[in-house]
Amino acid sequence: MSNKLAIELNVNGEPHDVLATAATPLLDALRTGLGLTGSKRGCNHGVCGACTVLLDGKLARSCLTLAVDVGERPVTTIEGISQNGTLSPVQRALLDAGAIQCGFCTPGFVMALTELFAREPAPDREQIRAALSGNLCRCSGYVKIIEAAERLAAAHAGEHQ
Amino acid sequence: MTIGVSPPRLEAGDKATGRARYIDDIRLPGMLHAALVTSPHAHAKILGYRLDAARAIPGVKAIVTGEDLKGPRSGGIIKDESMIARQRVRYVGEILAAVAAVDGETARRAAEAIEITYEPLPSVLSIDAALASDAPLLHEEQANYIKTVPSGGHDNVVFESSVEEGDVERAFRECDVVVEGIWDTQAQHHLYLETNGCVADVNTAGRITLFATCQSVHHIQQRIAEELGEPMAKIRVVATRVGGGFGGKHASNIHSIAAWLARQARRPVKLTLSRMQDFEIQRSRHPARIWLKTGARRDGTILARDAKIILDGGAYTDESPAVLAFALLMVRGPYRIANARARGQVVYTNKLRAGSFRGFGNPQASFAAESQLDELAAKLDLDPVELRLKNAMRPGDTAFGGEVVRSCVLTECLTRVREAQRRAAPLPPRPDRKRGLGYAVMSHVSGLMGTAANVQLRTDGSIALATGCVDLGQGSDTVMVQICADALAVPIERVSYAPQDTDSSPYNWKTAGSRSTYMTGRAVAVATVEMRDKMLEHASEMLECAVSDLELRPGGAIGIKGVPKAIGFKEIAMRSLYQAGGPIAASHGFVFDGPGFDPKRASIHRLAFANLGVYTFGAHCVEVDVDEATGAVEVRRAWCAHDAGRAINPVSCEGQIQGGFVQGMGYALTEAMHWDDQGWLTSVTLADYKIPGVLDTPPEINAIVLEDPDPSHPVGAKGIGEPSLVGAAPAIANAICNATGARVRQLPMIPERVLDAIEWR
User: Fold this and answer.
1) Residue from the list A44, A104, A146 with its beta carbon closest to the beta carbon of B194
2) For chain A, which terminal residue's Cβ has fewer other Cβ atoms within 10 angstroms, N or C?
3) Quick one: fold of B365-447+605-760?
4) Interface mutation vs chain B, best among A105, A139, A150, A152, most B CBs within 10 Å
5) pTM for the whole structure
6) Can you give the pLDDT at residue A161?
7) E-assigned strand segments in chain A
8) What architecture is domain B450-591?
9) B16 vs A48, A94, A135: nearest CB
């Protein structure tokens, strides 16, 4: 359509040109424009958290963020979390705890936990629960997701002693 | 070796990194996008369509309406459905037309440009309205519908059924204590995080390939063939990763529409639902009204139970007859009650159709039955756990309907949760909250229908395994591989598992009914052992030694007992491919073959199935805090014991138990679909429809996995997908009553209802 603008987004450390209208959500720019389909559309209303990305290191709902508003702020998506095929500690912890079931919510949980551990390497249970309160999971009952985060926190606490 | 251990899921890495491919991640060259026109009326005659404006929009490539459909009606047990409404609409949101266009925006504009004229009809929005003597009829042509079982349907009643054992009337006269009550339950939505969707492609010869997030590729293939009037050979269905199902992706509905549009446009078509559409046009758990009466002797021996269950089936039949029949069979509870009667009806209403949902009628029945058990205990002045233990089914007892139950660990489940609760350190008291404990037990089945597995030995000695079982997230891919690898004493990395594709996967009915580990797992075990026997014969000739002197060596070899000499699977494979015997493979398929009902009796009672599966058992104990000022209920801790027969992957078993319990908590406390008086669904976003978040969920949900190997399964396993949801609501209701003395008989137990119950206690 003619009302699309070419904008530049800095995604996972690389500049990308993408076409967007004034109303295009960042989620669409990522999924359709750039083929980064790891961020999921669970509700499109900012409730479920499956579309969560990091915007300048802070959690953002990409379904409620306009692509044209992103500007120069770096965007990190789930595709930018593991480096060279190696799982991040958060991803590894979720795998090892058996915290991943259908997996549709998982990218959002990985982003929320990545942000938490970046600011607090050894969070306690209440900090973990608070950090995950913006993400919905329908399969796990959350128990093993919290277990995964607690194990990672315990490992970090051990390293610091 | 690979059974009873919990390696990370095979596909978990892809899911954790965003690589796993779900339906909306698929993009094909030249792909069109579909949009739907849905009904604004709960009940109306369709007078006509005007499509000119929509057709004139550049980029519109195909349109289908009910006028294009000429074939018979489709559906499951009673064929009353149509992929797109014809002549009449029966609920708000029912699909009336679909458009495929070059992009989603164009498709939506075209859908809005389609003009449909209606003659609104009076609607029926509740069980009472459906059964009123002057109720408008939803399906005037009901008598002519094709039915796979006799329905007993009449007026707005879709289906009627009953089961009776002993002499209920006489037994009640012998009871010292009788309790009676009515329970009401609501429509719950599955709320899988991934909304439903599919992508249809078509080749030059007109063969359709459809990608789907689904619970069975074979079921969808059959439905599309039926609705498009094509032979099944021209329809191929491939499963993507599935972002949750819970029964909501059990029966096909939207797939034929995408296939139709692709066939018409000769281009790929994507049809994915928005969250609002998913709420409006998918399915719900059946709202139910249950009247229940139970009587016992002074010593606590339960003599009689009588039940009437009415389910609100919504506008179309879907799985309703089977859900009702299962609810009737479950309402007696896992108790020795010699005199029991259960009668039920499903009614049509002008709402979204209800269908299959984790528990399948059992959550409604058990909410009433297990709540009433506590009322009976109170009236008898007995401990509710002791009353349950006194009457609990034991191995060799018969389930309601007459099936003899061989493996039964009900009493163990109950005593285990009680002991675990007693051992747990008490939580600090809260002066502004009332605290209570509640128990519930449950039985369920694991089985049903047909399934199969194929295994073959590859050139390098690794194994290719294929089944038709789609993993919805519960972990069946990994479990099937664990069962196969165990039978060959190889690490799981040596077994590959094929994605489900009707062109190559052996038949499987559905991922449903807690049946995958039990049914498909059995097929995998038997097929693998059959292939192992063929490998042993090769090895016997190669090692010049009797088969009885051979043994499997861990890691992929067969050796002579007591002697180091061995040959690897690779050498066996090579021999079979290049020297003698031909490729080594095996397959095994079967239909559930366990003890069933007397077929004549099943038919008389319209049980909708002749046999179900093996019985499984479980028990829950829940601790709650109730705020008597606000009515708010907080679940603090839960102990949930379930019989897995044998836990193939214990961590996955725990995941099923914890996840099922929390979905049951949502059912118990917050989740409800609401329709207004015009039949509009008003709870259409995740902000209106509240599922438990992490802060609503207790940090401690203690999953206790019991293992009583089932004799009918080669490795003893039974399914545990559904039962964990079943016990949550009654256990919470009983805990609320234990805390406050107030009995809540309606779900969800929102603060207003809890306050009402406190006021009336």
Assistant:
1) A104
2) C
3) Aldehyde Oxidoreductase; domain 4 (3.30.365)
4) A139
5) 0.97
6) 63
7) 5-11, 14-20, 52-55, 58-61, 75-76
8) 2-Layer Sandwich (3.30)
9) A94
